[in-house]
Specification:
There is one protein chain. By secondary structure, the chain is an alpha+beta fold. The N terminus is likely disordered. The protein has three domains: 138 residues, Ferritin, core subunit, four-helix bundle (Ferritin); 40 residues, N-terminal domain of TfIIb; 97 residues, 2-Layer Sandwich (GMP Synthetase, Chain A, domain 3). The chain is elongated and about 75 Å long. The protein is built from eight helices and seven strands, in the order H-H-H-H-H-E-E-E-H-E-E-H-H-E-E. Helix 2 packs antiparallel against helix 4 and helix 2 packs antiparallel against helix 7. The longest helix is centred in the N-terminal third of the chain and has 27 residues.
Length: 313
């Protein structure tokens, strides 16, 4: 990447944007090498969400300045991306290389900051710099015992090819068990410990009696509860007090073109102790990468998130 001249603050700003886009592609590759159960995977998820947020922030600053970023950098389609790990890679190898690229990004952000005479550009770059430093720290804090070999690093295996290509499975943290009889229209559900015991009925909106709960309501409660737990995880990682979180969840049942059914989810998250809109959005976006419900449904259903009234992109 060509270094912008000391007389070109906009070029320096867009050099950082260009490198952020490069690191996005690097982290996407890294994401494929690390099982979702590993600690490194959660760190990469948060980093990817922040990189995309930084790219939007810098593009927005270009718009404020009335310039096009493509005037000083190639488009994504015009880039040639290098395959970083042609074969299997350990978590340590992934972490080290991503860390090197973050170090390079921090260096270029610092250089670009020194060139700026526009307050908005300085603020945008300073936000990126703070975020990069936070993620460098997160990577350093990961130790070898938190990051076992990634999938594909199969050693001393005598199983067949199908078994060798299956994703590595981590220790099961918890398994819930329940029994349902009668279905959603006129059924009964009970967990194995008896703490949840519900009558299942179709809602009145679908012609049912409505005197019981239904799968959509249970999903709405479960997703919101799980997401609030993920917010707590992000708050502890980032040392941010998220406060008494409130989540209004809506789960809609929809028909599909294939004459089947699907659902769509909206989670309106309120973080009463997080005053800055950008920080609230970033925390919710990071939680979306951690929450098991989000990971289980990603790419399968539409999920809309808001943070303190602001849409999470």
């Amino acid at each position: 990447m060509t270094t912008a001249s000391s007389q070109d603050p906009i070029g320096a700003l867009n050099q950082v944007l260009s490198e952020v886009i490069d690191v996005v592609q690097d982290v996407k590759q890294a994401h494929q090498k690390v099982p979702y159960t590993h600690a490194l995977r959660a760190v990469l998820d948060e980093l990817l969400a922040d990189l995309q947020s930084w790219a939007r922030l810098l593009v927005g600053q270009d718009e404020v300045l009335g310039v096009s970023p493509l005037s000083s950098m190639p488009s994504v389609a015009g880039r040639t991306f290098v395959t970083l790990w042609p074969g299997p890679a350990t978590d340590e190898e992934v972490r080290d290389l991503v860390g090197q690229h973050l170090d390079e990004l921090e260096h270029h952000v610092a250089l670009a900051l020194a060139e700026q005479d526009d307050d908005g550009s300085r603020a945008a770059l300073a936000a990126v710099q703070r975020g990069v430093v936070d993620h460098q720290k997160s990577l350093r804090e990961l130790t070898a015992h938190q990051a076992p070999l990634t999938r594909g690093a199969n050693t001393h295996s005598t199983t067949n090819d199908i078994e060798e290509t299956e994703p590595a499975m981590a220790r099961v943290l918890y398994t819930a068990e329940a029994t349902v009889t009668g279905g959603r229209a006129n059924g009964h559900g009970r967990t194995s410990d008896g703490l949840l015991d519900v009558q299942l009925r179709s809602p009145k909106e679908m012609g049912g009696e409505g005197d019981g709960t239904n799968p959509e309501q249970l999903f709405a409660v479960g997703y919101a509860a799980c997401f609030e737990g993920a917010l707590g995880v992000i708050g502890r990682r980032e040392r941010v007090e998220v406060g008494d979180v409130s989540i209004d969840s809506r789960v809609s049942l929809l028909p599909t073109e294939e004459r089947g059914f699907t659902i769509a989810v909206t989670l309106d998250v309120t973080l009463p102790q997080v005053a800055e809109p950008e920080q609230a959005v970033r925390i919710v976006a990071a939680a979306h990468q951690v929450c098991p419900y989000s990971n289980a449904t990603r790419g399968n259903i539409d999920v809309v998130l808001t943070a303190n009234g602001h849409v999470v992109g």
